Every structure is written in structure tokens, then in C-alpha cells.
Amino acid sequence: MASIFKAYDIRGIYGETLTDDLAFRIGRAFVTFLGCRKVVVGRDMRPHSSPLFDALTNGLTVQGANVVDLGLCSTPMCYFANGSLEADGGIMITASHNPGEWNGFKLCRARAVPISGATGIADIERIVTENAFAPRPAGPGRITAVNMEAAYAAHVRTFAETGRPLRVVADFANAMGVVEHRAITDLVETGPLYDTLDGTFPHHEANPLKTETLDALRARVRAGGADFGIAYDGDADRVGFVDERGEVVPMDMITALIARSMLRKYPGAVIYYDLRSSRAVREIIEENGGKPMMSRVGHAFIKQQMRGSDAVFAGELSGHYYFRDNFFAESSALAVLHVANLLRRSSVPLSEMIRPMRRYFQSGEINSTVADVSAVMKRLETRYPGGRIARLDGLTIEFDDWWFNVRASNTEPLIRLNVEAATREQMERRRDELLEIIRS
């Protein structure tokens, strides 16, 4: 049972590690933990999301909470509903980009504040394991269906700008991007790929981080006529981009682009970028009058940092884009809209907007299995004296012309390495040097 209670959500294989009975108990534990009276619940298109909804909401209502049934929705829409309906909590039933046999729950407090392993998931696991539920109230809660699509679309569209018409190819991967994209469907001409909801993912995994899943999107864009292409993940809280030539745009470059757009509306605002991002992102935020701040990896940490600084936007290298305007939570539709806004005002295509941002050479994230993470960290710190050290998340050491970060995995004996340098030769040399130290 413990294996399904993760650092950021609850996730398992339906019928094996995640059952309807367990979902019922998680519903009871959620209300016991939060003491909530009003909970919004959304779900994705997986076949077992419906029975899990029935079981989960039975547990919520048995424990006295009233449920707002959002029906099929994206995770960003669930966050929006949580905040705008002034709920005490929210649950999205989804396993995101995981294969079709998986499912799970993303949990939030009021105003879409995430519940992580350290801030409640471990407590909910304990309540479930120990049967430590609060006494049942005299009467159960009620379930009321509310469709938030129109309200979410109206909210997103307030940020649209006028300009030249745009054509976008959208790969929905048979998942909830179909619903998320409706918020902007009449703002950009859309050529759809795999837009029939199907929780078995018949065409490819709904994960834009895996560039092989973008092959069909890239081919369609290369066929001509599109200004850019987008690919949503399973619950549409992440989105990847390709330019008008069908080339993949690094997700940290999209962070820099959206930062430019946001700073036109919010001059001088605080913007977060995750610590794996190119140094160019920080520079571009500064060049556009913003206040760049580095964030940890992981949505719960980023949202907490954003709230603490009242940041207007944050971008994560995994394709999560967070907006103060969506209760400091993700909105893929808003991310697409901000890129579209920039292109409407520009006379150059997306590839040319990105080209001057590619100032450095990056290794990408490289995983290594290690026996003793702390010993590796000490070796690295000893090996590279004189650099600027940060311990926001793992170990970052910066020099004038290169930097690296190493982080430990939350769940495995792995170290994750990212390296960036001013030249490709230097990046490759430093990468190989670091890997030899890590793996020795």
C-alpha cells in the first residue's frame, strides 16, 4: 500500500495497488485530515476514473463533505475550480502521463495549494493504514455537478491579444488536452492530432518530455502551414512546443518566452525558473526588467516559493508553467496563449525568436545509480573549489563560464546531473569529468 503514496501524489495500477476500496478509504482520510466541507473533484478519461470517482466521493460524502463534481476536466481546470469556487480542497483523478493501467489522485487544500508527501500525503497514508478516520457525521454530504469549462475559458481568454491569425497543430494524445484546449480553440486555428478521448492511449504515451512521442506532431508541422505545434500530457498540466520547422523547443526557452510576455503586463515582477534551466533564462528575465529567482524542482516547492514572493509566473524544465492568475498553479492553455501573443506581435517565426536565446550548451539531465549520495556530493564539492555554491536543491556550483547541478532522486538511489557551459566542447568535457567522479 505504501508504494502508491508518492512525494507529489497518490498513484498506482488500478485493480492491483489502487482499488476502489482503497479510493473510498482515501476519501475518508482526506476529509479526516483537512476537516473540509467542500471538495472539488475532477477526473480524466481513463476507463477506471469513473469507478474511482464513485468510490472516492463515497468516502468523501460518508465523512460529511459536499462534493462538486467537475466531470471530465484537465488538472489546470480542477485547480481553477478549487480557487474560484472557494472550495476547502480539491482532488484530480489522474495518473498524468503514466500508461493506461495506472491511475491516481492529485490532492490540494483550499486555493489549489498542493498537498505533498511532506505536507499531508504521509498523514493520509497513516490514517488509511491505521483506520484512524474521524467519526462519521450524522448525515452524509451531497454531490453536485458543475461544469467549469465556460468559466475557465472566459478566464483564460482575458489574456488574449489581437494580431495576425495563427495556425497551431495540437497533439492531444487522446487525453485531457482536448478539454484544456477548448479554452483557446477559437483564438488560434487548430489542426488536431489524436483528439478522441481514449484512456488506453492507442497512438503514443502522453508525455511530451519523451521526444519520440512528438514524431507525428513534428511531421505534421513540417508539412507546412503551422506557426508552431504543441503536445499536451495526459492530464494537460504540461505542454511541449515545436517551432514552425518541427524542431523541438527546449522547455526552459518557453519559460523565457512566456516571461517576456508576462513582463509586458506585469513590469518588474518576480519570475521563477527551475534550477536546471539555462542561465539564459535568468538573463532574459533581467533584460526584460523582471526579477529572476531560482526555484527547486517539483510543483509543490515551486508553488510555495511563488506564493511567498507573489511571483507572477514560473516555468519548470518538465513543461509545467505556473501562473499567479491561475491560483499559482499550472495552465497549459495560458502558456500556449502567451506564446501566441508574442508571435502575433512579431514579424519573425518562433524559431527566430528562440535562436538568440540559445546562448549556452546543455547536457540535459543524466541519471547515475550511486551507493552513497552524500559521499558523491562531498567529493564534488571538494573537487570544485572556488565556485559559487547553492544548496536550494541538491548541489549547484557556478563558475563564470559553466555550472552544474546534482540532485538526489526522491525515490531511487540516483543522482541527476545537469551541466551547462559557454561552448559545446567545454560542456562535454565537464560532463564527462563529472560523470567519472559521480560513478567512480
Can you walk me through this structure?
With 440 residues, the chain is an alpha/beta fold. It folds into 4 domains: 146 residues, 3-Layer(aba) Sandwich (Alpha-D-Glucose-1,6-Bisphosphate, Chain A, domain 3); 84 residues, Alpha-D-Glucose-1,6-Bisphosphate, subunit A, domain 3 (Alpha-D-Glucose-1,6-Bisphosphate, Chain A, domain 3, 3-Layer(aba) Sandwich); 107 residues, Alpha-D-Glucose-1,6-Bisphosphate, Chain A, domain 3 (3-Layer(aba) Sandwich); 79 residues, 2-Layer Sandwich (TATA-Binding Protein), CATH 3.30.310. The chain has 14 helices and 22 strands. The chain is globular and about 70 Å long. The two termini are 36 Å apart. The mean pLDDT is 96.
